[in-house]
Fold this protein.
Amino acid sequence: ELSMGHMRFLINGRSFRMDEIAFEVKRGATEIWSISNPAIGMPHPMHIHGHFFKVMAINGKKTRFQEWRDTAMMGPRETLDVAFVADNVGEWMFHCHILDHAAGGMMGTFAVE
C-alpha cells in the first residue's frame, strides 16, 4: 500500500532505503503483488527493475489485454494486481517513477535468490 505520511512516501507503512532488502523471493517463483494507492489526487507510475510484469487486474477487475510492462500508472485510490516470474537473480528495485516520490521513500529493493 502506497501512502504519504508527514511528507514521506511509504510502502506498507514505511520508507525504505536503497541499500535495504525489503524482502526475498525464490528464483522461478510466480509473484503476484497487489499495489494500492489510497492517495486522493496523486498518481504513481510504478516500476519494477529486472523483470517485466502483467497488470492482471485494476480495482479487482481483470484487465483486457494483460500486456507485458515494466511500469504501470496507478491512479488515485486505485489498486493494481501485477504478476511476474522472478527469474532474474539479483537485487532489484521497485519504486514510483516520479523521482521525488522515490527519493522520499517510495522505493524498495527485493532479492531474487
Observations:
- The chain has a mean pLDDT of 88.
